[in-house]
Design goal:
Blueprint lengths: L1 H13 L12 H39 L4 H27 L1 E2 L11 E2 L2 H27 L6 H12 L3 H13 L7 H4 L1 H21 L4 H11 L19 H33 L4
Antiparallel strand pairs: 1-2
Length: about 280
């Protein structure tokens, strides 16, 4: 879907004259630009909602199946309903804003309501669902049985996606500046931030998953809370790289080898005792 957004934006610029005053464009260019913007609105809403559905499923596996929290399932269903309502409501608005639908890209064909209210409502609803999806799991992390280092790492890992909310807020600011009478010129910044928001949402969703865990863990270890070792000690800041890390791995490997050797010796000794003839 993000590629569809990019192709539509490029075609709207090259063929529709997005960025120019509408008075300087031909009727064919205006129609092409409005068609591209109409499909962009549908693609933007669908892409973000599908991404949010994927994040809700991911968090559900972690906090519903993994921890057995009783209220996690309820919150998951509420999040599903909110995002589903955003998707259905947005598509319904875009398809019913003009009568007939073709009036959305053909000026003077029929009657259209002011698009600014719909754009603003969709943007605010999208911002609210962002806050719900990215902030609620952080509260649940506090109850998990893990070290402080891991709690901070997981919290940052989950909440980092909320940075997209800043982009969403910026997009709403530029949406308010779109003027329907000169939409090809005034929509440029809102269109740019729509593409930025979608791409950054994909990036931060990946970071919220497994992809960014190691980098975030190293950051927390170096600047906030050092990670605890399995032997009850604490890694020093200089141990995260270089010879310090090699020494730790070497010590761990040697300890494991000693444990294996002692286990084998105990097994052999027990076997010999069992096979010794009684006097």
């Amino acid at each position: 879907m993000d590629r569809v957004m990019h192709l539509l934006t490029i075609s709207a610029i090259l063929l529709g004259g997005i960025g120019w005053d509408i008075d300087r464009l031909t009727p064919h260019q205006v129609q092409w630009a409005l068609k591209a913007l109409f499909v962009e609105e549908l693609a933007w809403t669908t892409s973000l909602c599908l991404l949010k559905f994927a994040l809700i499923v991911l968090y559900g596996r972690i906090f519903v199946s993994g921890t057995g929290r009783k209220n996690a399932r309820v919150v998951q269903m509420i999040a599903f309903a909110a995002v589903g309502g955003l998707l259905i409501g947005s598509i319904a608005y875009y398809l019913s804003a003009c009568t007939p639908v073709a009036a959305s890209w053909t000026p003077g064909l029929g009657h259209c309501v002011s698009p600014r209210a719909g754009w603003l409502g969709t943007g605010i609803a999208n911002l609210i669902t962002d806050v719900i999806i990215f902030s609620v799991p952080v509260v649940w992390v506090a109850d998990l049985q893990m070290s402080l280092h891991n709690k901070i790492t997981v919290s940052i890992q989950l909440f980092i996606g909320a940075i997209v909310s800043i982009i969403s807020f910026t997009r709403i600011f530029f949406v308010l500046k779109v003027h329907p009478d000169n939409v090809t010129y005034t929509v440029v910044r809102a269109d740019i931030f729509s593409c930025i928001e979608l791409n950054m949402a994909i990036v931060f969703a990946s970071v919220s998953g497994i992809a960014g865990r190691e980098a975030i863990s190293n950051f927390v270890h170096r600047f906030i809370v050092p990670r605890s070792t399995s032997y009850g000690g604490v890694y020093r800041p200089e141990d995260v790289s270089g010879t310090g890390l090699s020494d730790i791995r070497k010590t761990d490997r040697q300890s494991w080898q000693k444990l294996q050797t002692s286990s084998k010796t105990a097994i052999v000794a027990n076997a010999e005792e069992m096979h010794e003839p009684e006097p």
